[in-house]
């Protein structure tokens, strides 16, 4: 029996983005398909709900072009973009999709990088008719994150993340297992990351 998906902090780097399936915007990194399914408390799929996701790039920097966003009042500017001009002119690694009849959305993206004080994570929000149902985050196991950060060419120059789940990330805390994405390797070598979101 699944438990309802628990909320966590939205964080300071959210702003509303357009509807995109491919949110990688031509950047490089480990290609990843992020597959999410939305269900209700009786495990029935929920169609036509909006699922938004956002995460940083391989350097640990968020995009910051809020010029087309109708919901950017909470975006923390340089804290998120690190003052990087390319990031400030971009909306990469942000997107929103409506769930299909099976309650599913699929985003084409890359495995995120890390920044100081947080384990590698992906933010998400579920909404319907402008009502937010849950705002939370997903993460990866410490062992998986370490493998990517120390062996993949687009990540190993930065090395291991400085904060892990085991060292008690300040968002997930000790109750982190429910937030860990399932992972598998696709036949083409890309990464599959997936999870179910359950709301009441």
What is the strand and helix layout of this fold?
Layout: E1 31-39, E2 50-54, H1 78-81, H2 85-88, E3 94-98, E4 104-110, E5 121-128, E6 131-139, H3 142-151, E7 182-185, E8 191-198
Parallel strand pairs: 1-8
Antiparallel strand pairs: 1-4, 2-3, 2-5, 5-6, 7-8
Report what the structure shows:
The chain is mainly beta and 200 residues long. The protein is 9% helix and 28% strand. Strand 5 and strand 6 form a beta hairpin. It is globular and about 45 Å long. It starts with 30 loop residues before the first strand and ends with a strand. The mean pLDDT is 95.
Mean pLDDT: 95
The major sheet is characterized as: 4 strands, mixed
What is the N-to-C succession of helices and strands? EEHHEEEEHEE
Which class do the helix and strand fractions yield? mainly beta
Keywords summarizing the entry:
200 residues, four-stranded mixed β-sheet, four-stranded antiparallel β-sheet, 28% strand
Short note summarizing the structure:
The protein is mainly β and 200 residues long. Helices cover 9% and strands 28% of the residues.
